[in-house]
Amino acid sequence: MFFARISPSQVPYLGQRISQRYLMSPTSQFSKEPLTLGTMLRSDSGRTYKIEEVLADRRKPLLCVYRASADGKDYIAKNMIQGEFEYQLNLQRSLSTCPNVRGVIDTVQEHEVFIYPFLSGNLLRLSQKNLSEETRRHVLRSALRGLADMHDRDVLHNGKSGVPDDCPYHNYEESAEGGVIIKDVQISDLEDTVIVPPGKWLRGPLCGNAIWRSAESWCRSRQNQASDVFSFGIVTANALFEMIYVMLNEMVFRVSDDQLKSADSWRYILRRHISYFADEDGLNGFLEHIGEENPFYKRLIDLADSFGPGNPRQPFQRWGYVEPELRDLVGKMTNLDPTKRINAREALQHRWFRQTTYLG
User: Fold this and answer.
1) Is 17 exposed, middle or buried (0-12, 13-18, 19+ CB in 10 A)?
2) Which of 94, 161, 312, 315 is deepest in the core (most CB within 10 A)?
3) E strand intervals along the chain
């Protein structure tokens, strides 16, 4: 499910920037159908791309992902959200100097399509390989640098709700001995990004994949860059960044498909939020953050009350098989109270990341 689009009334301080996202380009020929295989796209730079494969068929809205080719090289082509071409182009261009962010490199305005570099793997697939802890730490630190660069520019990534293994992406090679050599690590999937200035919040949208969505997003409450940090700390499946999953192969918020598709799917995920990452101060701070008028205020209190001697909480800080420094880092990134989380730059300075001496 794609998260609800936001309007200027929801975030008045974004006013003009948000409204620009709905202005169709006069040259656009936006289609409701995916591009067909073999379609030749003439880009705004003059290069011709051929659609070779549909990697993700997403409709309503049309947000397909394609493998395209040009001059003997592979690229990724993506349909943009209708009416957001100029907004996204300007935003992604502001990130063009960030080495750990995969931004647009070419456009086809006629079809509202962005062209991106083609990278050979993603975090979820890479995590299934026999990687050393040092390599995994390097991948995570590189991805976090990309997120920090975005946050330095007031850009909120927002996660992603489509395919759960899209982001971040990597170029890597496998050696003859079976090892993995990481060449590039980049945060991708910028289509949902939005500018959120310091001290401001985004309110209303249900952002990101259900498994690693922040509690404030589940509650459709105030969100900002702290919500990205939470998702990074937990596991971002698409995208976004996988700390616990990559290091431990532990899908923290995994629930059954039936539970995930149920009308009250929030119940199963948020109960795990409380079990693993809440303490009294964090829960009280979060309740204050969302406010008593939020329908989740009472729901969260009921979930917290559901724990007892026969069904105790399982705080992440007590997971003895996780090294203490990693527990400390993740705990600081996943404080249930968004105002108490460390930011991306602070996370990069944590001693767990400073241990990395990866040379490739």
Assistant:
1) middle
2) 161
3) 40-42, 48-56, 65-70, 73-79, 106-108, 113-117, 121-122, 155-156, 169-174, 180-186, 194-195, 202-203, 222-223
Residue 49 in 3-state DSSP?
Answer: strand
Q: What pTM value is reported for the model?
A: 0.82
Kindly list the structural domains of the chain, giving each domain's residue range(s) and its CATH number in brackets, ordered by start: 39-117 (3.30.200.20), 121-354 (1.10.510.10)
Q: What is the pLDDT of residue 254?
A: 66
Rounded Cα distance between 314 and 109, Å, is: 50
- Gap between the Cα atoms of 339 and 222, Å rounded: 11
Phi, psi (5° rounding) for residue 35?
A: -65, 140
* Angle between the N-to-C axes of helices 225-234 and 324-333, in degrees from 0 to 180, rounded to the nearest 10: 150
User: Quick one: pLDDT at residue 166?
Assistant: 43
Q: What is the rounded CA–CA span in Å between residue 180 and residue 168?
A: 17
Eight-class DSSP state of 67: E
Rounded CA separation 270/312 (Å): 15
- According to DSSP, the β-strands at 169-174 and 121-122 are antiparallel
pLDDT at 179: 66
Give the number of C-alpha atoms closer than 13 A to the C-alpha of residue 209, restricted to the C-beta side: 24
CA distance 80 to 317: 41
CA 104, CA 241: separation in Å to the nearest integer? 20
What gap in Å lies between CA 201 and CA 219, rounded to an integer?
Answer: 14
Structure tokens at 131: 């990687």
Quickly list DSSP for 130-171: ---HHHHHHHHHHHHHHHHHHHHTTEE-----SSTT-SSEEE
CA pair distance 31, 214, nearest whole angstrom: 33
Measured CA to CA, the distance from residue 274 to residue 5 in angstroms comes to: 28
pLDDT tens, position by position, 16-67? 344 344 344 444 455 678 999 999 999 999 999 999 999 988 888 888 999 9
Integer Cα distance of 8 and 241 in angstroms: 29
Is residue 334 within 8 Å of residue 230, measured between CB atoms?
A: yes
Residue type for position 188: S
* CA 269 – CA 290 distance, rounded (Å): 17
